[in-house]
Amino acid sequence: EEELENDTAALRGSAVSAFYKTEKGFAASATLQSDNLMFFSIPYDEGWSATVNGKKVEVERVNKGFMAVPVKAGANEIEFTYETPGIGLGIIIKVRIF
User: For a surface tag, which of 16, 26, 31, 43 has the fewest beta carbons within 10 Å of its beta carbon?
Assistant: First the structure.
């Protein structure tokens, strides 16, 4: 039981403290004890982009198809935004045709 409690306490140090939906995706708050990859059990798709504390970061594909982003130690605000791949080009083509 003591080992389980220690493992749980260690995981708590790398978990989000708040998670909420935004207009174009979702956001989370987390305070980490050390630099790490923050894992999200949301399916990876090329349409996702992310920022950590307002700075663009690479969304990594991990664990056979989920997402993670690099996060520094300390307090962090993480925001994911989704845009359908190719939608910008589709809008340009539609505007030029009509």
Answer: 43
pTM for this one? 0.77
Alpha-carbon gap, residue 79 to 2, rounded angstroms: 35
Confidence tier at 85 by pLDDT (50, 70, 90) = confident
* Token pair in block for residue 42: 């949301």
What does each C-alpha distance from 94 to 50, 53, 83, 90, 97 come to in angstroms?
28, 35, 17, 6, 5
- Residue 72 DSSP code: -
Q: Are 69 and 37 in contact (CB under 8 A)?
A: yes
CA angle 89, 47, 19 (to 5 degrees): 140
Contacts of 80 (CB under 8 A, 6+ apart): 25, 26, 27, 40, 42, 48, 49, 50, 59, 67
Q: How far apart are CA 40 and CA 1, in angstroms?
A: 27
